[in-house]
Design brief:
- The protein has strands spanning 2-4, 9-11, 18-24, 28-31, 36-39, 47-53, 61-64, 67-69, 82-86, 93-97, 109-116, 121-124, 128-130, 138-145, 148-154, 172-173, 177-180.
- The protein is mostly beta strands and 196 residues long.
- The radius of gyration is 25 Å and the shape is rod-shaped.
Amino acid sequence: TILSTGREKTIGEKMFKNFKSFAMRSSLVCIPLISACGSISEPSVGTGAWSVDTSLLSDTTHSLTAKATDAATNTSDPSTTVGITVDTAKPSVTNVSSPIPDGTYMNGEFLINVTFGEIVTVTGGTPYLELNSGGSSVATYVGSSGSTLNFKYIVGAGDTSADLDYDAIDSLKLNGATVRDVALNDADLTLAIKDP
């Protein structure tokens, strides 16, 4: 008998693609949808944990059930269904914008938003965005909300630009940070090619 099938989870390139549960010792547990089986890893009295490699699953949501077969070839009824979402796609930047209207500014602080195609989380260091206003001008990460990272740019002495923008397609720098989606896929930081 399969006693438990865990709970719904999202898995990505940074996580083992394993479907885990518990079944009686000395059983072979199989997931018919992907023709994958795993043996009980704890052959002791009671139940044991098992896992099955689900790397054959495509990037989408799957509903999986499992059956256990004991040494006498008795097969259990299917388990309750467990939902697994496989996501191995890297989140990518979809837009760079600012809420500040176009104009001429001599000084001040300005927000710049970098938006990804899905929710991302920043951990570790402090990312920055290289700008085209001369010298070593950068906008520094100050926080995020959902899929958008917020950066602050402080106009410095000698900074000048007819049209303030990021400097190049590789201007978004991690600076020791990680930017990942909920499946722990590292973000693609490439920005759009700018108009000449």
